[in-house]
Design brief:
By secondary structure, the protein is mainly alpha-helical. Helix content is 65%, strand content 7%. The chain has helices at residues 16-34, 36-46, 53-62, 69-76, 80-92, 114-135, 140-163; strands spanning 67-68, 96-100, 108-112. The longest helix is centred in the last third of the chain and has 24 residues, at 140-163.
Amino acid sequence: MSGTASVQHRVDLTDADDRERARRIGRAWIELRRGASAHALRGYIFGDHPLEQGQMDALDLLVRRDRQMRELAGRLRIDASCATRTVDRLVTAGLAERAPSPEDGRVVVVKITGNGRARHAAAASRRGRAMARILAEFDESDRDQLADLLDRFVDSVDRVVGELD
């Protein structure tokens, strides 16, 4: 994340230009999240043994280190029950395992298995190749600007979600 301070700029959805920009950004978000291209890209990244995006997100964290369930849920920005379902699927697939924490046996720690590391490495490699090909269509300056704008966009989404009731 960029860590820059939030600066508010007025967006007037009654203004045709603001409304059109909001529509284009919203449409891009939808297409990135669930469009046919996104589906095909997920199929390429996850290979012959598909993972759900949430499972890959969890493996991205577990490959770095073991995580307590509460920490995993927080890092994934999901509630504990969703994290439990994600970990259940990973355990069933042999990609992760649960163990008691060495510090406190009442606390559950999730660990990636060897099979989980292999599946993650394969998917991460395909994801990297796909990202390199996608970004190759942008020059270095455009990639810098895109990265900065996406960091700001994620920060803004996080702030707004934190303010929602």
